Amino acid sequence: MTDQSQHAPTQHGLAQSQFGEMSAAYVESTVHAAGADLQTIAARALVAAPRQALDLGAGGGHVGYAMAPHAAQVMACDVSPEMLEAVAAEAARRGLANVAVQAAPAEALPFAEGAFDFLACRFTTHHWRDAEAGLREARRVLKAGSPAIFVDVVAPADAAADTHLQAVELLRDVSHVRDYTGAQWTAMLGRAGFTVREVRTARLRMDFATWTARMRTPPERVAAIRALQAVAPAEVAAWFGIEADGSFTIDTVLIEAV
């Protein structure tokens, strides 16, 4: 019998292949390109006026574009080189000459200790193979006392709702690792050496057709998600506000730390 693990991609490889193919979709994504959380990041960057800002897990680069007018230099770092090519092209199109790119996993950043004096990380940690290692690296490359902002989907504390969320996330995107609860986020940041200053939660509606199309989720997995939604317990369906077309609402968290 052939050992399938010998041929399967690593977690980083999955993320590279998934998001490399969808780089343009994430640059153009309305969900990723706007939001109160992005406005908060821009506002904090305006006050901090960083010399070197890091967009960790850059994705479509929207955090970097928001910080660029207020920073001397912005480094957009992501595991996908193809994604970063799209970010560099979009930064050039916007006239943001101070945005540079670097391909690397969050768990092994190729930057010196204390290289940055501002850091923002948005909707990416749930893809990291080892979230705590990535947060330790974030702390290592951030100058002591400098601000950091983390934004991500947050998992429900309720076990049934949590299981449902992780399942539909994985079916939609095989590079998904885990959405963490608010309590897990606070604990992980503390262990990584951060001090949490403020935590804010919000709700975000996901249009089902757009959500699956952005990741080019195969029809059989789209059908599996819809099947899970159809049999979700009433409490779970209510938690996510599952709609007739499959659209639903998730919780997000914004954490300000130093």
Briefly, what is this?
This protein has 258 residues and is an alpha/beta fold. It has twelve helices and seven strands.
Topology:
Layout: H1 11-21, H2 23-28, H3 30-33, H4 36-48, E1 52-56, H5 62-67, E2 73-78, H6 81-93, E3 99-103, E4 118-122, H7 131-141, E5 148-154, H8 159-172, H9 182-192, E6 196-206, H10 208-214, H11 219-230, H12 234-240, E7 248-257
Parallel strand pairs: 1-2, 1-4, 2-3, 4-5
Antiparallel strand pairs: 5-7, 6-7
Please supply descriptive tags for the structure shown above:
alpha/beta; 7 strands; 7-stranded mixed β-sheet; 12 helices; 258 residues
Explain what the structure shows.
The chain is α/β, with parallel strands linked by helices. Helices cover 45% and strands 19% of the residues. The protein is built from twelve helices and seven strands. It is globular. It starts with 10 loop residues before the first helix and ends with a strand.
